[in-house]
């Protein structure tokens, strides 16, 4: 349960510093995890990004102050992190469905987002299908891109990378090269620094480095392998949520700290019968 407490500590830190210019790196430090792992853990458990949570909470407080004070809109805009009244008004209307001036006149209903409290379920509603396997180190071959974690650009850019791979035939090439210990095309994220990650779309490949591709060695690990049934991306996201909110708190396992794998087949990604896997290194 320690990771739950650490995550709540990071959320509490965000609440204390809502009006400050805080970095995602400083927030992740409170949870004692990397920026990437904190971003993903937060998104999986809350269905929103860290940046979206901060925006929602700030605009909630701004609406409350607007309705009970005579503070000028330009002053509120600066206080809650917006450079101009126009930018503040645009964001305010997107969340609340009305302008700041309309909110001051109490002419409609405001949308409030409360402070988050993380809870977990120690008994899963549905059984989780997984197995524990051990693998010696193996090589993957594929393409690598470096993505910035600043302003959570990686969350927007990684899906575009997949679209490109699926559109230019690279996915078919990777399936043809798949002769290693794991069957399928892999999504692999490697922490690079507090501000960037390397993301791989690759396949397990035993042999020389193929032309036009790069190779990486995945270290020997004990893996918890979870079955994923259903169309992408919802089925994959649902299993990740169960892993973090149910399995880890009750299993006794800890994350080993090496890269995780998402394993995809060459089936129709929209099929309700699609089979995929999540491989998590554990100790």
From TrEMBL:
<dbReference type="InterPro" id="IPR029442">
    <property type="entry name" value="GyrI-like"/>
</dbReference>
<dbReference type="InterPro" id="IPR018060">
    <property type="entry name" value="HTH_AraC"/>
</dbReference>
<dbReference type="GO" id="GO:0043565">
    <property type="term" value="F:sequence-specific DNA binding"/>
</dbReference>
<dbReference type="InterPro" id="IPR011256">
    <property type="entry name" value="Reg_factor_effector_dom_sf"/>
</dbReference>
<feature type="domain" description="HTH araC/xylS-type">
    <location>
        <begin position="8"/>
        <end position="106"/>
    </location>
</feature>
<dbReference type="InterPro" id="IPR050959">
    <property type="entry name" value="MarA-like"/>
</dbReference>
<dbReference type="Pfam" id="PF12833">
    <property type="entry name" value="HTH_18"/>
</dbReference>
<dbReference type="GO" id="GO:0003700">
    <property type="term" value="F:DNA-binding transcription factor activity"/>
</dbReference>
<dbReference type="InterPro" id="IPR020449">
    <property type="entry name" value="Tscrpt_reg_AraC-type_HTH"/>
</dbReference>
<protein>
    <submittedName>
        <fullName>AraC family transcriptional regulator</fullName>
    </submittedName>
</protein>
<dbReference type="InterPro" id="IPR018062">
    <property type="entry name" value="HTH_AraC-typ_CS"/>
</dbReference>
<dbReference type="Pfam" id="PF06445">
    <property type="entry name" value="GyrI-like"/>
</dbReference>
<keyword id="KW-0805">Transcription regulation</keyword>
<keyword id="KW-0238">DNA-binding</keyword>
<dbReference type="InterPro" id="IPR010499">
    <property type="entry name" value="AraC_E-bd"/>
</dbReference>
<keyword id="KW-0804">Transcription</keyword>
<dbReference type="InterPro" id="IPR009057">
    <property type="entry name" value="Homeodomain-like_sf"/>
</dbReference>
């Amino acid at each position: 349960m320690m990771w739950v407490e650490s995550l709540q500590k990071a959320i509490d830190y965000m609440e204390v510093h809502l009006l400050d210019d805080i970095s995602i790196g400083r927030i992740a430090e409170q949870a004692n995890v990397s920026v990437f792992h904190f971003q993903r853990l937060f998104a999986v458990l809350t269905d929103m990004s860290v940046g979206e949570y901060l925006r929602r909470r700030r605009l909630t407080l701004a609406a409350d102050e607007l309705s009970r004070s005579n503070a000028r809109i330009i002053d509120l805009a600066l206080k809650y992190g917006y450079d101009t009244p126009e930018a503040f008004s645009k964001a305010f209307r997107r969340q609340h469905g009305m302008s700041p001036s309309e909110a001051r006149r109490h002419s409609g209903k405001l949308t409030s987002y409360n402070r988050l409290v993380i809870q977990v379920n120690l008994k899963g509603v549905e059984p989780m299908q997984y197995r524990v396997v051990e693998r010696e180190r193996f090589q993957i071959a594929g393409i690598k891109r470096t993505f910035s974690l600043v302003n959570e650009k990686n969350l927007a850019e990684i899906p575009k990378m997949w679209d490109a791979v699926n559109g230019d035939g690279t996915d078919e090439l990777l399936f043809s090269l798949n002769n290693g210990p794991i069957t399928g095309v892999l999504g692999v994220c490697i922490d690079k620094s507090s501000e960037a990650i390397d993301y791989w779309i690759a396949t397990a490949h035993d042999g020389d480095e193929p032309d036009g591709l790069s190779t990486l060695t995945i270290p020997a690990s004990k893996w918890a392998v979870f079955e994923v049934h259903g169309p992408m991306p919802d089925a994959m996201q649902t299993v990740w949520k169960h892993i973090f909110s149910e399995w880890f708190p009750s299993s006794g396992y800890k994350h080993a700290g090496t890269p995780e794998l998402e394993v995809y087949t060459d089936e129709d990604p929209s099929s309700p019968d699609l089979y995929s896997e999540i491989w998590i290194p554990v100790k």
